[in-house]
Fold this protein.
Amino acid sequence: MSWLTPHIATQIVDFGSAMLLVTCFAIVAQRRLSACVDLFALQSLFLAMTAALVAFFTDTRHIYIAAALTVVVKVVVIPRLLKGVIERLNVTRELVMKVNVPASLLICGALVMIAFFITEPIMPFGHLLTRDSLAIALAIVLIGFFTMISRQKAVTQLIAFLMMENGLFLGATAATYGMPLIVELGVFFDVLVAALIAGIYTNRLQDAFDSVDTTRLNELKA
Amino acid sequence: MAILFFLMVASYAAGLLLPLCCPARPKIQNLVAHGSAAFGSLGGIGLGIVGLFGPDPLTMSVPSALPLLTFAVRLDALSSFFLLTISLIGLAASIYAVGYVTAWYGHISIALLGSLYNGFLLTMTLVTLADDGFFFLIAWELMSLVSYFLVVTEHEKADVRHAGLFYLIMTHVGTAFIILTFLLLFEGSGSFSFDAFRHPEQPLPDGIRTTVFVLALVGFGTKAGVVPLHVWLPYAHPAAPSHISALMSGVMIKTAIYALLRVYFDFFGGQFPWWWGFVVLVVGAVSALLGVMYALMEHDLKSLLAYHSVENIGIILLGIGAGMIFHSYGLDELAVLGVIAGLYHTINHAVFKALLFFGAGSLLYATHTRNMEEYGGLLRRMPWTGACFLIGAVSIAALPPTNGFVSEWLVFQSLFMSYQIPSLAMKLMLPIAAAMLALTGVLAMTCFAKAFGISFLALPRTSHAKHAQEVPWTMRIAMGVLSAVCLALGLAPMLAVPIIDRVAASMIGSSIADKMLALDGWALAPVNVEFSSLSTPALGLVLAATAALGLGLVACCGGTFPRRYSKTWACGLNLTSRMEYSAAGFVQPIKRVFSTIYQPTVKLETEFLEESRYFAKRRRFEFHIAPVFQTYFYDPVIAFMSGLADRMRIVQGGSLHLYLAYMFVTLVVLLLAAL
């Protein structure tokens, strides 16, 4: 494979990371919850692909396992779980938003710029072929965080949380070619449990308030 | 030695875990928990004795994964002494608890209570053994937390929860000061190990040393309960189960004395100006006097005992403060005398206070009330408890031939020795402290005349008292053992003093055991035999002979009169319990004499007969004493803090999105700031 110079490998990894970022924007722009879940599954698939590419280029075995786990947990199990929650609760759309979609997209654009601005001084020190992905990973984390703040339904917030987690995973892969396998396994387990707990919590929210709107949680304050 | 240590820790650990694993049979849980605790205490007693007589201290250390933290243990003479005290009371409390907790079968979880009890003993032990600042703080904080959970054992009662919260806040305020103390010491030494505190790389500047002195006094003083930081004791001690109160009042507050000695004499090597000792002396004198005065006005037996802990901590600090003053003037032999007096009173107070709390617990067990006004006539119904309580009361009132008398005598002697100090001011101040101690002693005697007389003598005032029965034998054994220890320490101080002398000598470096024993070891003298001396065996013999003489006279001459049993004559009326002195009535004279301090409010309501204003149908009398410290010291602080908290509430919007936004903004700002 003589055509596969490090430069080209970097380009391919960057492309995969960029696709993750694009799906982020798609999630921010999407009001339908089931579509959000699908987009999240797609993003996770891109993540798994990027990770597999990194594994292939650097010949690091354990990233393959992490990529496979990503497919199982984040592309299959969690989306199915979330769809179940959405179906049972009968919430299909994010109706009221704190920040509307165009404004959200603009803010997310600004966040991406901030992420690149922040990582700019440390990029030249990196010598890995994944180094450019770090900025994208940070951007995804920030966008996920922002989505958690700006959306009101618990399900959307959960998706945003998982999005952040994807960003962190990408960041770990980008910065150090992935964490030790045992840590990754722990993280996958954590994410799965977090998703389960948030699913149950959403159900309880529905029971208590007849709604999954988390802004109503301040009614709990005396 | 190491084996004893592991035996002790393993027993406590077993007591911590096993009750939670055993089947839900309270009886088994009770025996497992308190049995392990008793074994652990026996190990602790053995370890303490070995440590006191051993040539060099036992040290062990296990490094940890956390930076700056080492699980280092060191058993020197000072640690051994406190370990011995804790374990002795722990053993008695474990025996007592076997009977005492039976009252709660089916109401509260015996497994949890027993498990926490073991944890409490273990953490107290570790506090005295820790040889690393970080480890000490962990053990200290665990001790505070475990004791909080024990205080709120009966958490379904609102006043117990309130008491627990109060205790938790006070103890955390104290811990904050202690953490500052250790951080300042850490600044100078660069390490948290006690050895580094002892020999810092460069000596601490004077300002820092003074700050450490004040911080340690406030921090540990909160736990010890010195005035004005004593307010939690009368809440927390009555709320806890009685065997826990005995441990808290008898030994937990002594860990603070241990820590103060450790900081002042060990870390600073006794290098301090005279006024440090003077401050400790003043704090001690004020605590002793105010503690006993407030105790007099209490009618809740356990609160009364809690206030007496304030008093006795004050007496201990009087001895230690005198020792510190002597030490700063280079009078090392007298310094040792003062510290011996303080330490002897430490173990004595532990023994008799635990005994009295056991007695109070027995009364609570038998009558289900702590209010003295509802007792009466209990001596006939509970003779064993009564006899043991009497011995405890005699000890705490510092009467011969019990231990309280000996240690208070030693404190007096060390205060009188002030004539050897070159400074005129101190020459005058120490006798004033002695006068305050004398007043304290008198008031303590009045207080226990009241406590014993109102509770045990005359007729029962309520049906609770009327139907009281003697407590189970385990409780009686525990009280009996402690009563015997009270008498032994009172009659044979000549055996105890040389041991305590080793402890004091290890801190100050001058041993006076030889000079303190006079008459071939049959009498005790404060360094200087010409000044004064005391032979407790002779005193005991005289007391016994006087009693024997009286009994003999009665037997010889009184035998001719026929014995008649009849009712006490009450001017033709039938005797009722309403004719008795009440606890409130008993202390009225004291209340009047010291009305400037108590600032009492008296309320008397009278309901007259409709026919005539000359006949009262019903009278209602109430008196309250002003909670001076609460009003002038705590309320302003509490008001300020809650005002601050109210303003902080704006930040707590209750909205999930707001909280997320806080985090988000913090994250972005920090990321940008990092550039």
Q: What stands out?
A: Chain A is about 75% helix and 0% strand. The mean pLDDT of chain A is 84. The helical segments of chain A are 6-29, 33-58, 61-89, 101-119, 133-150, 154-176, 181-209. The first helix of chain A runs from residue 6 to 29.
